[in-house]
Amino acid sequence: MASFDVKALFTRVPEGGAMKAVKEAVNKISENEVPVSKSDYIKLISICISFYPFTFNGKVYRQHQRLAMGSPLSAVMASLFMELLERDEYIKTMGRNSTWCRYVDDVISIYPRGTNIANYGDLTTCMKVYNSR
Description:
Layout: E1 2-5, H1 9-12, H2 15-28, H3 38-50, E2 52-56, E3 59-63, H4 72-94, E4 99-103, E5 106-110, H5 123-131
Antiparallel strand pairs: 1-5, 2-3, 4-5
Helix pairs in contact: 2-3, 2-4
């Protein structure tokens, strides 16, 4: 058994990976469940995450990459991204005979005795490999 924590989850999730997860989620729902067309809905989300203003010491800054802390969309998008990561990489990383349970950025994995999880690296490494594709 092992536990993992994704450190600074929002700031490690790339916009491209998050948008891929959003597109997959939106495409699974019917057209009348969104207030505009699916393509417009996806474009609106993309616009929202492309400009993350935040204030520090009285000055306004723009987040240039990854998901921003404090944005209402970041929590949803990070969760969708983690679901995509689990679906696409979990079995390759941990094997079919293991169990993986996640709550936001905390994971517990139960795997067969004798499995050397040191060979798998950490979850951040898994995310980097996934993001590089």
